[in-house]
DNA sequence: ACATTAATTGTGT
DNA sequence: ACACAATTAATGT
């Protein structure tokens, strides 16, 4: 069901075929359906997930229990946070919820050290994951700190569209509001404006991003 | 096909 | 943010 070709396609950076074989040998294949809480704050991380398909939402909670959306994970990527955690306390700082049915390769974290020194491509992979997640989080931070809700909403739609690889999003205004820590009404009104501008079309439970959406 | 109902979206304050 | 209206999709009859 999962072979080297599969890995090559989804993780082009992991070129080393010895590494690919080793991944296949030690990883367990897992299918998770939408809504599953893959990892929660405070839980111990035992596996590094390599995503083959689907989409996962990574968020974090502050002292008051407010959830903050950090980014979406898509296929071909891994959770930089879990890479970091296995060098540190082993506990997760984040929550990972499956947005769209996902298939994963779960690699036990005990291989991390070994592979870091053994495989150059694994090192690159880890570094690149860090770099891109860090970058992504900076953008999210900018968006929260410096941009108004309409820009944040645009970014949200873009991100979600990229993660799910579709222009047709199935989501309610309420859920978006929750992810952006805003109110449903505010989101509804902004979406309506965007529809009037002609960059999206709205329907019950769906939002379609038009070509003009940049 | 029609009526009922729950969920989602729209609007005024 | 709240209250309520309007619309939509799902479900039963």
Could you characterize the architecture of this molecule?
The structure is a single chain. With 214 residues, the protein is of the alpha+beta class. Helices cover 44% and strands 26% of the residues. The protein is built from 8 helices and 8 strands, in the order ααββββαβαααβααββ. It has helices spanning 4-10, 17-26, 80-85, 111-118, 120-146, 149-164, 173-179, 184-197; strands spanning 28-32, 37-39, 47-61, 67-74, 95-108, 168-170, 200-203, 206-209. Strands 1, 2, 3, 4 and 5 form a 5-stranded antiparallel sheet that branches. Helix 4 crosses helix 5 and helix 7 (173-179) packs across helix 8. It binds a DNA duplex (13 and 13 nucleotides) through residues 172-174, 183-185, 188-189, 191-192, 202-205.
Give a short synopsis of this structure.
This protein has helices at 4-10, 17-26, 80-85, 111-118, 120-146, 149-164, 173-179, 184-197, and strands spanning 28-32, 37-39, 47-61, 67-74, 95-108, 168-170, 200-203, 206-209. The chain has 214 residues and is of the alpha+beta class. The longest helix has 27 residues, at 120-146.
